[in-house]
Amino acid sequence: MKALITGASSGLGEQFALKLSDMGYDIIITARREDKLEQLAKKIKTNVMVIKADLSKEEEVISLYNQVKDQNIDILINNAGFGMCGYFDSYPDTTDKEMINVNITALCLLTKLFYRDFLKKDKGYILNVASVAGFMPGPLMAQYYATKAYVLNFTRALYKEAKMKKSNVYFSVLCPGPVDTEFNKRAKVKFALPGAKSDRVVKYALTKMFKRKLTILPQTRIKLAVLGMSFMPSKVIMAVTSRVQKSKIVKDS
Ligand SMILES: NC(=O)c1ccc[n+]([C@@H]2O[C@H](COP(=O)([O-])OP(=O)(O)OC[C@H]3O[C@@H](n4cnc5c(N)ncnc54)[C@H](OP(=O)(O)O)[C@@H]3O)[C@@H](O)[C@H]2O)c1
After folding, report:
1. Active-site residue, selected from the candidate residues 25, 115, 144, 159
2. 39 CA distance to ligand 1 centroid (A)?
3. Which terminus of the chain is less hemmed in, N or C, by CB atoms within 10 Å?
4. pLDDT class for 192, splitting at 50, 70, 90?
5. pTM
6. Is the distance from CB of 78 to CB of 110 less than 8 angstroms?
């Protein structure tokens, strides 16, 4: 039994690696910060392989796949991702490209490559990490919210396609609200409410994934928010989101 986890150098990815190892899975962890991955590898009790890769670069995504394709992987966790807070015109074009490459392009490519392999052996789980942000437009974090809408709808559609093929490959999409990780620092935000603990979010996510649940909303308040939003006009949702985002922006000192 083996799992590949992207974005494992911190936060949710680190917890996915630890929890799956506790369940007996051998682990392949990847991210850019090799030192962090090596530190994590020391805590993993099962076999572990560390691969440094920058998923914003297509050649490194393909190289990652080539290094592990013969490893008989059972679970792919597409977790790597990041956001940026602020007016869209205020942050650099390079951030736009990098975010689309990591949050969308790499996730899409890894999903396609592993899905084909999983279909051949007719087994496997693919868990894509989206966000509650995927359910709405997000002024002041416009691009991040939009990338997560892609992840959400892409995964939902593939879940259905896999069912139509009567395959034993299962798709799930994790949609957390705020979680206490390094996400804030990189996105330049400060949550208004304390974030959930990453280990609890991951424990919940894996339980639901193994039950083959499609959309995983790990916090009760997030479930209620998503339900509430389904009755609201999008202009009202945007008014609320923009206010929430504005209150979270951390000014550069
Ligand atoms: N924290 C939250 O509130 C929250 C809420 C909803 C959804 N999420 C989603 O949860 C996922 C995990 O985020 P997190 O909260 O655990 O944040 P995090 O602690 O910042 O972890 C993000 C991970 O993504 C990796 N990553 C970023 N850019 C990368 C790149 N170019 N190439 C390879 N790896 C890259 C980082 O590794 P390196 O920097 O070492 O490359 C890190 O391991 C993300 O998809 C995020 O959008 C988070």
Report:
1. 144
2. 17
3. C
4. confident
5. 0.96
6. yes
Q: Which atom of ligand 1 is nearest to the CA of 37?
A: 40
> Does 134 score more than 90 pLDDT?
yes
CA–centroid distance, residue 11 to ligand 1 (Å): 7
* Residue 166 alpha carbon to ligand 1 centre in Å: 32
Chain segment 64-83, per-residue pLDDT in tens: 999 999 999 999 999 999 99
Name the nearest CA neighbour of 56 among 91, 93, 8, 94: 94
Amino acid occupying residue 33 = R
Domain boundary assignment for the chain: 2-248
CB 37 within 8 A of CB 30: yes
Q: Which atom of ligand 1 is nearest to the CA of 132?
A: 6
Residue 87 bears catalytic tag: no
Q: Is the CB of 54 under 6 A from ligand 1?
A: yes
Per-residue pLDDT reduced to its tens digit, 200-242: 999 999 999 999 999 999 999 899 999 999 999 999 999 989 9
Burial level of 28, CB count in 10 A (0-12/13-18/19+)? Answer: buried
**Cβ distance 241 to 133 under 8 Å?**
no
